[in-house]
Amino acid sequence: MAKKRQKRDVVIIGAGMAGLTAALYAGRSGLSVLVLESELVGGQIANAADIENYPGIPGVGGGELISAVQTQAEKFGAVVDEFDPIVRVELSSQPKIVETEGAVYEAMAVILATGMKRRKLSLKEADRYEGRGVHYCELCDGQAYAGKTVAVIGGGNAAVDAAEYLSKLASKLYLIQRSELRADKASVERLRSHKNVEILRQTEPRALSGDTKLTAATLFDRKAETAKELPLDAVFVNIGVEPNTAMFADQVKLDKAGNIVAGEDCRTNLDGVFAAGDVRTKEIRQLTTAAADGTVAALEAVKYLREMNK
Ligand SMILES: Cc1cc2nc3c(=O)[nH]c(=O)nc-3n(C[C@H](O)[C@H](O)[C@H](O)COP(=O)(O)OP(=O)(O)OC[C@H]3O[C@@H](n4cnc5c(N)ncnc54)[C@H](O)[C@@H]3O)c2cc1C
């Protein structure tokens, strides 16, 4: 049976903070809006226990926060469709085509808000302690370890930046890197100048331990070929991110790391295609910056459609 063909002003791909905020603004501007989500609504934040840095809300569960944004977007007419995987996108045509397993959508504008995944630590205990000593975002969870002993795992610029940030909070900070640091020299030197920082090169974590929370990591010194247990309150893993861009990698311009190239106006290299949130080339990836991008992308889409209809 042929798939149903449906028209929308805007199709948004991804129902995290960026996509749902875009849906809220586009719906409130009177556009017909469909949000397609391949998994559960909410994105990275869906299962986070406690968000402490969303302005105006001192403490809130990630699921609660994101479902409030969904409700707000739906109130303005946006339709959120979960679990209907996209099988094809055509982004340079007008209208643009987004085909799912169940339908073919024609959209005048598309907002890409597919976010990213942080590369996980490949130790079998890492999942067990996630959120209880194993963390992937220092800006999100670092504050809980003020005055404690923490480690950052990784050796790129992002890891050194994370270590710099955490060194101001922690009583002792280790930067653990399995080979040599790849971060720029000036940043490494600045980090090294802090008295509470120790850099362990040629060292890799082999095991994590603790009862309900992480309390130690077993580190293997690759040069000396010895292992030792290091008491730690937390490890912050910073070994790279994977933007969710495979589906449109051959159509939209990406940077070297695979993020969609788009400036502050969220416009991509393709007319009528916008990128919002963690999937866009940017420095700071937080809920507030995702919400800001969702706002800008939606309002830019409104402007684009208005200009097209002149
Ligand atoms: C554990 C954790 C805790 C965090 N805590 C905080 C915090 O306390 N404060 C803070 O500000 N930030 C926090 N962050 C960061 C914050 O969650 C992100 O910056 C923010 O969620 C990014 O939103 P986004 O909408 O851009 O992307 P995402 O949240 O990644 O959402 C993208 C959505 O797109 C969907 N998607 C991907 N590919 C497709 C596809 N092909 N088709 C359809 N849908 C697709 C995904 O399933 C996902 O739902 C945390 C992150 C993590 C992982």
Descriptive report:
The mean pLDDT is 95. This protein has 2 domains: 4-117 and 241-308, 3-Layer(bba) Sandwich (FAD/NAD(P)-binding domain), CATH 3.50.50.60; 120-237, FAD/NAD(P)-binding domain (3-Layer(bba) Sandwich). With 310 residues, it is of the alpha/beta class. Strand 9 (149-153), helix 4 (157-167) and strand 10 form a beta-alpha-beta unit. It is built from 6 helices and 17 strands. The strands form 4 sheets. Strands 1, 2, 3, 4, 5, 6 and 17 form a 7-stranded mixed beta sheet that branches. The chain has a 5-stranded parallel beta sheet with strand order 8-15-9-10-11, covered by helices on one side. The structure holds flavin-adenine dinucleotide.
Summarize model confidence as the mean pLDDT. 95
Rg result: 21 Å
CATH superfamily of the largest domain: FAD/NAD(P)-binding domain
Into which percentage range does the β-strand content fall? Answer: 25-35%
Helix content: 10-25%
Listed once per kind, the bound small molecules are: flavin-adenine dinucleotide
For the sheet with most strands, the description reads:
7 strands, mixed
| Domain tally | 2
The first-to-last residue Cα distance is 38 Å
Stated plainly, the CATH topology of the largest domain is called: FAD/NAD(P)-binding domain
- Described by the principal axes of the CA atoms, the overall outline is elongated
Give the ordered list of helices and strands.
EHEHEEEEEEHEHEHEEEEEEEH
DSSP strand tally: 17
The helix count comes to: 6
Poorly predicted tracts of residues: none
User: From the coordinates shown, what is the CATH architecture of the largest domain?
Assistant: 3-Layer(bba) Sandwich
SS class: alpha/beta
Question: What's the CATH class label of the largest domain?
Answer: Alpha Beta
